[in-house]
Amino acid sequence: MDRWYWSQSCTESGECVHQKITGVRLYDGDQKTSFKDGTLYLTDRRIIWEQPDRTVFLALNLSLVILVEEEKGGFRSDPKIILHLATPTKSQSSGPIGRSNFTFIKLSFSNGGKDLFEKNLEKALQAKAWEKSLFTTQLQGQSLSTMPLRAGILGIERDIHSKQRETSSNISKAFEDLKNLMSLAKDMVTLSRNIANKIKEQTGEISSDETVQLRSYLLSLGVDDPVTKEAVGSTTEYHKKLAQEICNVLKSSVEEVGGVMLLSEVYCRINRARGLQLLSPEDVYNACSLMSNMHLPLRLFTFKSGVQVLQLSSLDEEEVSDNLRQFLEGCKEGGISPIEFSRSSGVPLLLAQERLYHAERCGITVRDESSEGLRFYPNLFFTRT
Question: Which of 25, 69, 237, 334 is most buried, with most CB under 10 Å away?
Answer without folding.
Answer: 25
